[in-house]
Amino acid sequence: MSHHGRFFRVSTAGESHCKGVGCIIDGVPPQLELTEEDIQTQLTRRRPGQSEFTTKRDEADKVTIMSGTEKGVTLGTPINLFVANKDQRPGDYGEMSQVPRPSHADFTYQEKYGVRASSGGGRSSARETIGRVAAGAIAEKWLRLRFGVEVVAWVSGVGEVEMAASAEETGRTVTRAQVDETFVRCPDAAARARMGQAIEEARDAADSVGGVVSCVCRGVPSGWGEPCFDKLEALLAHAMLSIPATKGFEVGSGFAGTRLRGHVHNDAFVARADGSLGTATNNSGGIQGGISNGENIVFRVAFKPPATIGQAQATVDFAGAPTELAAKGRHDPCVVPRAVPIVETMAALVLADAAMAQLARQACILPRAALPAMDKVESEVNGKQAPSSATTQNGTGDEPASKRPRKA
Prior knowledge:
The protein has 408 residues and is of the alpha+beta class. The protein contains ten helices and 18 strands.
C-alpha cells in the first residue's frame, strides 16, 4: 500500500514520468512553524543530477505546500505537498516496454496488475521516494523541537569498500556536514575516495554497484516502540525495506552479533551522572524488547546494485522470445549516496509515529494520587517502604525524572 504510520500518517502518490509526485500527511501537530524551506533541504540532497555519481536526469524537485498551513504555521489539518516532474523522457523506455528489465519490478508489476507504467518504472521508481522524504523532513523538525532527536545517515560501504570504523563508533559524533563534504556521502576520507573510484568504474563499464547506508538516531527517549508486532526495530525494518533497491536490514550488532557469546554481547547497565540508567555498550542498537532504551539507535540498510544498466544482457521479452537488452535512459550507477536522506527521513517517520503513540498512552495514565495501589507495587519491586500518597514527590506520584530512565 501507499500509506505509512498510524498517528503521523503519510500517503504518497505519483509515478516517475507523470506530471508530478507528492504526499498527504495527516497528524502533523498544529502551531509548528513550517515553510517549503524546511522541507527543501532534504529533497535537494535526494534529487537527481547532483554529481557524476548520479543519474543525469535534471530535476530541481522544488516542493510546494498546497494545504495545511497558514502564514507559515501548521493548522493541524492534512498537509498536501507537491513536486512537479519536469525532465521526463518516456521515449527512453520504448524498448523496455516490451522487455522486462532483469531484477527490476517490470515483470512483477505486470503480473500483479495486468498493466504497468512502462516509462521509468512508475511507482517502483526512486522518484516515488520524494513524498516520503518531504513528509519525513517535517517529522524530523517536530522530533528535533519536541525531543531533541537527531537523525544522521551516511554511506558506510560501496561494493567491496567499507569504512574501518563501526556504525556504533561513527554514530556517536558524525554530523550531516561531515557526511555532505562530498557527493559520496561517506565521512571517512580514505574510504570515500575508494568508494568514489568503485562507482566510477561501474559507471564507465555501463554497470552498477550496491552499498550500505548506516544510520544513527540520537536523543531518542526510552519507551518508544510497541510489543509485540510493532517493535521499534520491526517498524524500522519495515520502513527501510520499503525503500526501492533495499535487500537487507540489521540493528545494533546485527548478524555479526551471532558470532559472539552472551557475556560479550550483553549490554551491562550503568548509572549515569544524572541518576538515570544507561548501558556500557550498545550491541542492542538502542532497542531492547522492541522498545527504545535511551541509547543511540544504530542500524544499517543494504542496497543492491541498480537493476537498470547500459551493459547488454541476454534475457527474454514478455512473450518469452530471446533478446538482448542494453537499457537506455539516465540511471544511477549506485543509489546509496542519494539514499542517505531517504533513510534519514524514513527513520524520522517511524520515530514520529512511535513518539505520538507513547504520548497518547501517557496522556491516558491517571494521576498517581488516584492509584494508591502503585505505591505498594513499587515498594515490593524496589524493596522499599511504600510512601503515602500525600508524600509523592511531584504531585502526580511519579519518581523524580533523575531517578528514572530517560523517557518521553
